[in-house]
Write a structure and sequence with these properties.
elongated, three-stranded antiparallel sheet, two-stranded antiparallel ribbon, Membrane protein, 11 helices, mainly alpha
């Protein structure tokens, strides 16, 4: 029989999941609730019901990642692109700008977990940097440019091209780097855009910055791995991986883009 205390506990577990940087290993109550979720089927169902009532979906609950949630369509907790634009201080919120930022996030996920085995391995830790993500997207742009030129030469329409091909022109036109008068990275460069995206992911508990090298280097978290598993079902994610612009440099989780870092 479900009690008021059970409902309160389920709601508390959901609330922990909405605190991006909170982990079960750092909070006794959180850890106990996660263990109860895994052992008590009725409590698990109740947690899902509470989350659903708030417009949330439970993606995973474990001691490494904690409670990982995703907002359903039209949920009050859904992070829409305009909200992301405000949080990331995107000056222009035109549709092209939004698509470019989506492409950056897509590339970050693909660099962090380039192989199916990486997503399946709960102990895997990927590393991404601002320079790597920018290099990957630029290399993708180069390949898509070649595809477009070949299609034009063959009089083939581009209407059926993958959705990634809708954004490559705008990204390729932008400079990779440029300094402001006070020496900071200009926000309207592609690396400035990538840097904002990675900082946003770090604020959400998906990445942790490990150094300032390569424009900022980050490691992935179990929370991010769960989210990328969901993203991997997206056709655009497959399109990007199939361009073969990601390669694994070694077995330690350090990744590099196949493109040169000299842009």
């Amino acid at each position: 029989m479900t009690t008021t205390g059970d409902v309160e506990s389920a709601a508390r577990l959901v609330s922990f999941g909405m605190r991006p940087k909170q982990l079960p290993s750092r909070d006794v109550v959180y850890g106990d609730l996660v263990r109860r979720y895994g052992e008590d089927r009725a409590f698990k169902q109740l947690t899902h019901a509470v989350a659903a009532g708030l417009g949330l979906m439970v993606l995973e609950v474990n001691l490494q990642a904690g409670a990982v949630l995703a907002a359903t369509d039209e949920s009050v907790f859904e992070i829409k692109m305009d909200s992301y634009a405000r949080q990331s201080k995107i000056r222009e919120r035109r549709e092209t700008e939004k698509v470019l930022h989506g492409l950056v996030h897509l590339a970050t996920a693909a660099l962090g977990y380039p192989r199916p085995d990486d997503l399946a391995n709960d102990t895997y830790i990927g590393r991404v940097s601002v320079e790597q993500v920018d290099a990957m997207v630029r290399e993708a742009c180069r390949i898509l440019d070649e595809r477009a030129a070949e299609a034009e030469a063959n009089n083939d329409p581009l209407a059926d091209a993958p959705e990634l091909e809708q954004a490559w022109r705008a990204y390729a036109r932008r400079p990779a780097t440029a300094a402001t008068k006070d020496g900071r990275l200009a926000s309207d460069t592609t690396r400035g855009m990538v840097a904002r995206a990675l900082r946003f992911l770090a604020d959400q508990g998906f990445l942790v910055q490990v150094s300032g090298e390569q424009g900022g280097t980050y490691r992935t978290t179990p929370r991010y791995q769960v989210q990328v598993r969901e993203l991997a079902a997206d056709a655009a994610f497959d399109d990007l991986l199939e361009l073969n612009v990601v390669s694994v440099a070694n077995g330690g989780g350090t990744l590099r883009a196949a493109a040169s870092d000299t842009l």
